[in-house]
Amino acid sequence: MSMDEAHGGGMVSAILSSVVLLLLLGRTADAQRSLEFFDLLPEDPKLYDKMRPPKKDGQATVVYFHVTVMGLDSIDENSMTYAADIFFAQTWKDNRLRLPENMTSEYRLLEVDWLKNMWRPDSFFKNAKSVTFQTMTIPNHYLWLYKDKTILYMVKLTLKLSCAMNFLIYPHDTQECKLQMESLSHTTDEMIFQWDPDVPLVVDENIELPQLQLVKNYTADCTQVYSTGNFTCLEVVFVLKRRLGYYLFHTYVPTCLIVIMSWVSFWIKPEAAPARVTLGVTSLLTLSTQHAKSQASLPPVSYLKAVDAFMSVCTVFVFMALMEYCLVNIVLGDSDTPPKPAAPPPPPSSSGTDTAKLDKIFDIATKENAMLLSGRSQKSSAGPPPGPTPAQRARMRALNIDRVSRVFFPFLFAVLNVTYWIMFAEYI
Q: Which of 66, 104, 275, 337 has a CA positioned 20 to 30 A from the CA of residue 40?
């Protein structure tokens, strides 16, 4: 082989090696190149319309929902609202997208900002008053693309939601608060919401509320028909039962003690008007303050609540105890005037003084002789004691009214309490 041939063969080998190296470097560069949004669009980007749902074979697009409830708090009966911290996930399939050529894993994380240029469900929280998006330490949301062109979008939110409450049997009530998600612009002909078939709802078991207890939660469908069409809707229902312990020790027991305190006047003598009146008026004012305190956290409603009925009956009992003393005072005061003094005997005349003294001496001697002869003492000969005066009889009637009240008031109050608690025993 000549020198020229050897040199020519070396040049060809060098060129081939350079071409192979360039191909390998190009593939490595493609593998390391970041994914762009246009890599997901069809070959002709004009075929992708982000305003049109990805319907397949004319069927409505199905969007699957998953909700994880991490906390419930700030339940306000006055404004009928509550707060919830949730993870909210939506899953749908868009066959119009292309998969990245270098996608080797089951899913790939996409930039959330790409949602602005993609079709996504127009879901909104129907009964939300405000929504707070979590941004610490980074925005709490992410976007996944699976190999079957399924898209998962999950976001963490804090919601302030309205909850229609009924206080007819308050504080024995059970409230149902809802979290509703509805489509804003797509009817059921284009899009349908469905719960995730595997895990639709997860609620933290450690949720604790100060006055309410989360006894049940479930998912439901709340699709409604409007004038513009039928719009899909899903909801989560939280069943909240009120704890009675707080109201038992802060409302019912103090109220009963105030009523019992008003009965102390039945053991105070009828003549002590300042003590009995002060006790009755003080009990009535204290009970009014207690009633106002029990209504402070509730909105003004037009119907009678269970606690209102109980407090009203207790107020009537205290008022009737005060009226009982009015009756006692009337009975006591009818014959309480002092009796008229007897007229003094006329003074004896001076001329008959000696004769009157002699007659009186003879009368006394005659009576003593008769008692000695009959064998009876002066004490046994005394007549029956005089009867009670009208004032004493009036006082006895007043005391009898107090004695009856000591039994009648507690008995009737016990009957009403038993009736009340039997009526609401099923709600305890």
A: 66
Cβ neighbours of 229 (radius 10 Å): 13
How do strand 174-183 and strand 123-125 relate by DSSP bridges?
Answer: antiparallel
3-state secondary structure labels for all residues of 144-205: EEECCCEEEEEEEEEEEEECCCCCCCCCCCEEEEEEEEEECCCCCCCEEEEECCCCCEEECC
User: Helix-strand-coil percent breakdown of the chain, rounded to 5?
Assistant: 40, 25, 35
pLDDT at 347: 56
Cα–Cα distance, 241 to 243 (Å, whole number): 6
At 351-367, the pLDDT tens digits run 455 556 556 665 665 66
- 332 near 395, Cβ under 8 Å? yes
Instruction: From residue 290, give the alpha-carbon distance in Å to each of 169, 296, 378.
Output: 19, 10, 67
Q: Which two tokens stand for residue 34?
A: 């970041």
Provide the token pair at 388: 């009670």
Token pair belonging to 178: 């809802």
* Beta-sheet pairing, 191-195 with 229-231: unpaired
Residue 427 DSSP one-character state: G
What is this structure's pTM? 0.77
Q: Which two tokens stand for residue 369?
A: 């002789």
HEC readout, 340-367 = CCCCCCCCCCCCCHHHHHHHHHHHHHHH
What long-range pairs does 339-345 form, CB within 8 A, spacing at least 24? 339/389
3-class SS at 266?
Answer: helix
Contact call for residues 270 and 395 (beta carbons, < 8 A): yes
pLDDT score at 278: 93
What CA–CA distance (Å, rounded) separates 395 from 329? 9
Tell me: the pLDDT tens digits for 323-343? 999 999 999 875 545 555 555
User: Do 187 and 216 form a contact (C-beta atoms < 8 A)?
Assistant: no
